[in-house]
UniProtKB/TrEMBL annotation:
InterPro entries: Mutator_transp_dom. This is Mutator-like transposase domain-containing protein. It comes from Haemaphysalis longicornis (Bush tick). Residues 1-147 form the Mutator-like transposase domain.
Length: 149
């Protein structure tokens, strides 16, 4: 599932659910059985895309942007990304509105990235040219927790 949510009101403007398989088809009766014909006549398949799992997010983002004018009468001008900006690049290449929306990083993602970088920095140990590591002013586990929460 992918959704477009207004940043200020948290109102869900639009959403799309893409499935590259149908759970009922997977668990349904054997195609060679007598019950299959009756089941198939009543079954509504939920599969609505043939995209691979890795492309579902990209396809959903494009669908939401392409429908934004007809469904909501809106042009989305800013995309808040979660660090994986493949969706943004697909919107950028499609030029749905004739212009490229601005990309912003989600602050939670920025915190996560900075926290990860801080942990790596601590694990590398003493920088070259520094007499000691630790003490007042140095990065500690407690300080990292405080900065990233």
């Amino acid at each position: 599932m992918a959704a477009v949510i207004d940043l200020f009101s948290d109102y869900v403007l639009d959403y799309v659910v893409l499935l590259n398989f149908c759970p009922d088809c997977e668990c349904g009766p054997d195609p060679n059985s007598d019950a299959y014909v009756e089941w198939k006549a009543q079954h509504t398949c939920q599969k609505n895309t043939t995209s691979s799992a890795g492309r579902l997010e990209l396809e959903a983002a494009l669908i939401l942007f392409e429908l934004s004018l007809s469904v909501n009468g809106l042009k989305y001008t800013t995309v808040i990304c979660d660090g994986d900006n493949r969706s943004y690049h697909s919107i950028q290449q499609a030029k749905v509105y004739g212009f490229i929306p601005v990309e912003e990083d989600c602050m939670n993602q920025v915190q996560k990235t900075m926290g990860h970088s801080s942990v790596q920095c601590m694990q590398k140990g003493k920088p070259s040219g520094v007499g000691q590591i630790g003490g007042k002013g140095w990065l500690t586990g407690d300080l990292m927790t405080k900065l990233t929460n």
